[in-house]
Amino acid sequence: MNGPVVATPIPSLSSSPTPSPEVSRLPTPAPNEHLAAPSPPAASTSPAISDMTSSTPRAGSPVPIQLSMPKTDQYDARGTLPNTLLAVAVIATVLGAIVGSSLALASRRVLDLLAGSWARPQLGIYLAAVSTFHLLEFYTTAGWNPLKVSVDAFLLNNTTQYHVAHAVGLAEYFISSYFFPSKFDSKRNSTPLLAIIVIVMICAQIIRSLAMIQAAQSFSHIVKSKKHDDHTLITHGLYSWSRHPSYTGFFYWAVFSQLLLGNVVTTIGFVVVLSRFFSRRIVDEEKWLVKFFGDEYTQYRRRVGTKLPFFFSSS
After folding, report:
1. pLDDT of res. 122
2. Distance CA 164, CA 266 (A)
3. Could you say which residues of the chain have pLDDT below 50?
4. Which end of the chain is less crowded, N or C, counting CB atoms within 10 A of the terminal residue's CB?
């Protein structure tokens, strides 16, 4: 959840305008590349890697940005569907959802026999919300930040602490369902209150995803210690409301996901742990942002807060 030239090793939930040194995972094959003999390794690959990290082609750069899937001389796309990573991801998700819901419908009688008091609507909403979060992490990267797209963009291999936190939340839910089932019949778990919680989670998810879209190539899942040409300071849209809207969105989404499950211990735990995590991360990240943008970022930080509770800015 040291030296001045080493990236901070926190591979979780990113902030807004961080530099983006990752190379593209989508090299465009040359025509008949599959027939060509392999070329010997170049003496140095730095120039090529450098060219592929910018969203704007640099002077003399032979590698243009590719927003569509790599082309091949073996097959020409019909053109009736967008041939992009985002389109592929969305189509795969829709087909998978249809298969999953169809199988659930087909096995409904078995599920009714197996399901106990723990099978409440809020558990299903929670699992759907977590899955949607990881899908949208990839969608926004594939659609608006393609040079950083990889399987890691799903954030499924996020920090161990992240997975442990959700596992503890589910454990509290199942323990409460077994030993204290009556608590789920209280006003604290009434339908109107659950509806409000779900609305807050949806809004928080929109804030995080929209922040990633607005930052585009300036967004990174890892705090960077090196500024690249495609990195700009984003101050419009959500960034005029919060200077770290992706953090803010995730914070409220995560905390309210535990409220949705009716958890008490993990809700408090999420508030404490996430507040400390983001406080440390923001201080570290803004150290580099001040170095990259100087007084421009210092003035921006004075004008715009984080909208995170329990965070005390170092400015």
Report:
1. 94
2. 11
3. 1-12, 14-64, 313-315
4. C
Q: Please, which residues bridge with residue 72 across strands?
A: 75
Tokens 């759907």 belong to residue: 128
The tokens for 39 are 């070329």
Q: Among candidates 84, 81, 68, which has minimal Cα distance to 29? A: 68
252: tokens are 């409220």
Q: Assess contact for 245 and 238: CB atoms under 8 A.
A: yes
Give the pTM: 0.76
Residue holding tokens 């984080």?
Answer: 306
How many whole angstroms from its chain centre is CA 278?
Answer: 15
- With H, G, I as helix, E, B as strand and everything else as coil, classify residue 65: coil
CA nearest 156: which of 130, 134, 138?
134
Please give the Cα distance from 242 to 15 (Å, whole number): 11
> 156: which 2 tokens?
């499924």
pLDDT digits over 159-172, tens only?
899 999 999 999 99
Distance, CA of 145 to CA of 85 (rounded, Å): 11
**6 secondary structure, DSSP code:** S
Rg (CA), the chain: 23
CA-nearest of 137, 155, 113 to 249 is: 137
89: its two tokens: 């991801």
The pLDDT score that the predictor gives to residue 65 is 52
Distance CA 276, CA 1 (A): 10
Task: Pinpoint the alpha helices (H) of the chain.
Answer: 46-52, 85-106, 108-114, 121-144, 160-179, 191-215, 245-260, 265-293, 295-303
Q: Which amino acid is at 122?
A: Q
The residue assigned the tokens 């190539």 is 217
pLDDT digits (tens, 9 = 90+) for 174-186: 999 999 999 998 8
Q: What is the dihedral of CA 152, 157, 158, 163, to 10 degrees?
A: 150
Rounded Cα distance, 221 and 249, in Å: 15
Tokens of 60: 């003399």
